[in-house]
Amino acid sequence: MASAEVKQRLEQRSREADQLIAQLKQQVDNLRTCAVAASGGSSLEKENADLRLKVDSLKAKLIDLEERNGSVQVSLPNVKVNPAPTVTSPVAKEQPPSIAQPEKAAEAKPKKEKKEKKGSGKPQEKKEDVPVTISMMDLRIGKIVDVKKHPDADSLYIEVIECGEQVPRTVVSGLVKHVPIEEMQDRTVIICCNLKPAKMRGILSQAMVMCASGDTIELITPPAGSVPGDRISFDGYPLGDFPPQMNPKKKILEQILADLFTDENKVATYKGVPWKVEGKGICVAPTMAKTKIK
Q1: Percentage of the chain surpassing pLDDT 90?
Q2: Rounded distance, CA 235 to CA 69, Å?
Q3: CA dihedral 109, 110, 116, 122 (to 10 degrees)
Q4: pLDDT the model gives residue 92
Q5: pTM for this structure?
């Protein structure tokens, strides 16, 4: 019975010794990790060897003490003891700089170039506003080749006017109450050709017939010998500077009309400068002096 108790005690101390050894090994591993992070692997190996020597020395002392107490040493089969989980050192190893893999770089889609925002780069120089003058108005001689009353408006004529172009222009004018239709037919007139076309009671009007306007309305009469397409000119104002179409938002027409009058001799003028057809004469109103032209 005594031998069984001794054997049981020895087994228990052996297990305790193995657990102590396992704990020491765990500490050794932790010290090794810290040592590698701090000063490299060579010093850790040295400390590990020293610790193993201490463990062996402590084990020998333990066996010696047991033998002195009358304990018999019995060899036991190896018992595997699961070591405690390794504690990761908080000191992280310095990682080498990452190198882009060529394959991944090849797989990466090329980034689309960003479109330059409008207004980026050098600021554009602001264009100076061109002064509004009669040069911006395309005034020509026209001939009414056909005229009829508007079917949906009692005060409007629909005229077909030749003005030197391949196709005659359709013009709608509010002249029914002022000029008889007989006087309109085959009449030579002056028209403004660079207005924005506009519908009048469903008919697109492509020009404007120029008239003296006061208590009544009279057509401005060109000089004798004028033919469709002849340009109206003004001394001091060059021809050819007119836009294809005057911008209604800029009120170009309104600014020009403010300076169009007949003088005391019934001559059509712009700021006192007579309207004329080069080599043929000046333009006049039949009876109306010092009145607006529109």
Answers
A1: 48
A2: 141
A3: 160
A4: 46
A5: 0.57
pLDDT in tens, 170-182: 999 999 999 999 9
DSSP category for residue 131: P
Residue 139 confidence (pLDDT): 95
The rounded distance, in Å, linking the Cα atoms of 247 and 42 is 90
Please, is 20 exposed, middle or buried when counting C-beta atoms within 10 Å of its C-beta (0-12, 13-18, 19+)? middle
φ/ψ bin of 279: left (φ > 0), alpha (ψ from -120 to 50), beta (otherwise) = left
Tabulate helix, strand, coil % of the chain (nearest 5). 30, 20, 50
Strand, helix or coil at 218? Answer: strand
Q: According to DSSP H, which parts of the chain are helical?
A: 2-39, 41-68, 102-107, 181-184, 252-257
How is residue 245 written in tokens? 């179409």
Closest-CA residue to 190 (of 237, 260, 243): 260
- CA-nearest of 276, 260, 182, 263 to 224 is 276
Q: Which amino acid is at 6?
A: V
pLDDT at position 36 over 70: no
- Token pair, residue 231, equals 């340009």
Closest CA to 144 of 181, 197, 198, 199: 181
Strand partners, 96: none
